[in-house]
């Protein structure tokens, strides 16, 4: 931003690289990460493992409890273990290069709207070479069960 910072919290599905839930906040408090995690759980179900970085928002009791109370195993990337978060780190790089660094928003509202618009575009329209030229939504939809229609 022109002055100050905003922070993006996101939950990503590793198979599809799809952003399952996201939020732009003005602080790095754990409550924002918990909110995004709970949104992803309620929309898409609960995974076996939740992999995070080592930021204070992910080591806070509230976040750890939100993970373990749902029966998930927390997995934190170790220092220097870049492979643990490589997909999320690649997303951060993309959102910064393709959206954030191109703007100097004056207030939080346009920053939030623009970044969340990017997340939607990333999921829906941005092809990925690692996904065979498909978008995260296309890859995610392959995993969904098919439902037979009755007439």
Keywords:
6 helices; two-stranded antiparallel ribbon; Nucleotidyltransferase, domain 5; two-stranded parallel ribbon; alpha+beta; single chain; 151 residues
Characterize the structure shown:
The chain is α+β, with helices and mostly antiparallel strands and 151 residues long. The protein has one domain: Nucleotidyltransferase, domain 5 (2-Layer Sandwich), CATH 3.30.420. Helix content is 43%, strand content 14%. The chain has six helices and four strands. A two-stranded antiparallel ribbon has the order 1-2. Strands 3-4 form a two-stranded parallel ribbon. A hairpin with a 6-residue loop joins strand 1 and strand 2. Helix 1 packs parallel to helix 3. The longest helix is centred in the C-terminal third of the chain and has 17 residues. It is globular and about 55 Å long. The termini are far apart.
